[in-house]
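Quiz preparation item.
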């Protein structure tokens, strides 16, 4: 049974990822050309669905401007760098977010939990957390950036590189209680994040209302000041797929099934993140609670 489950899990993972991740099937030279045209593969949440772009508004702490000449030159040089693709790290990271359908005799009814205002969703080191965070970096798109998170301390750190046309790292929640739980947050206005470190860099926080691996990311940008907190209102989230804004989507606050953080060279629709640098980074996630 264990062997069958392992084979089934791998098969489901490959179907899920290769069906949607066109960059994984594209030669690096072609990927590089695609990047110069539309920067189409710098985000961990990719979909091949056709979407209509719209303009995001009301982003938290979002500032416009141009990156310095030094930063741009460094990024362009690194973007031309080629490194071997770590396929086993790709499989290791991606497999943590795939939930297989239960066998008929083992099927359980999904549970929906109503969440009240002021309730803690996740806290570093709390043994009662119903999910952990795990890394999901640009290796899923052939990149070479690498990050890790310690769920006991909430410290998420690593190194971001533009090599292989990458440039992002992320952490994503594992399926809530193994995929059997969703959250009804209809009584709440949003989620408050308490954090440390961050060095003033701009991160993204993502709420998911679908278990689809590459579904819509309800995204909010925020600048992480040292030992701070930020509120993420559901009303101003930006629906994105593959870092492209989409229109015609509605957030299902009654069906929250995933949470994510990302640190990316891109913000939305090909625009650069002005508070981003390649190299080492760190953010300590202390607590997530509703408000």
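Solution:
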């Amino acid at each position: 049974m264990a062997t069958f489950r392992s084979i089934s899990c791998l098969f489901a993972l490959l179907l899920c990822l290769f069906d949607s991740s066109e960059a994984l099937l594209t030669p690096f030279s072609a990927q590089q050309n695609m990047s110069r045209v539309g920067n189409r593969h710098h985000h961990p949440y990719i979909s091949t669905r056709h979407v209509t772009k719209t303009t995001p508004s009301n982003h938290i702490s979002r500032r416009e401007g141009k990156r310095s000449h030094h930063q741009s030159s460094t990024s362009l040089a690194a973007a031309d760098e080629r490194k071997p693709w770590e396929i086993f790290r790709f499989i290791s990271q991606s497999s943590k977010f795939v939930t297989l359908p239960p066998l008929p005799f083992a099927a359980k009814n999904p549970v929906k939990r109503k969440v009240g205002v002021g309730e803690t969703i996740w806290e570093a080191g709390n043994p009662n957390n119903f999910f952990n965070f795990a890394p999901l970096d640009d290796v899923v798109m052939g990149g070479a950036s690498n990050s890790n998170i310690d769920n006991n301390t909430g410290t998420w750190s690593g190194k971001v590189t533009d090599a292989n046309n990458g440039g992002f790292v992320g952490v994503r929640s594992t399926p809530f209680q193994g995929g059997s739980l969703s959250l009804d947050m209809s009584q709440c206005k949003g989620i408050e994040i308490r954090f440390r470190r961050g060095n003033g860099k701009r991160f993204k926080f993502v709420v998911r209302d679908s278990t689809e691996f590459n579904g819509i990311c309800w995204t909010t940008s925020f600048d992480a000041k040292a030992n701070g907190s930020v509120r993420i209102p559901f009303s101003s989230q930006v629906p994105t797929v593959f870092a492209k804004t989409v229109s015609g989507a509605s957030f299902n606050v009654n069906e929250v099934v995933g949470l994510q953080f990302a640190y990316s060279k891109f913000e939305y629709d090909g625009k650069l993140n002005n508070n981003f640098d390649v190299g080492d980074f760190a953010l300590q996630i202390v607590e997530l609670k509703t408000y």
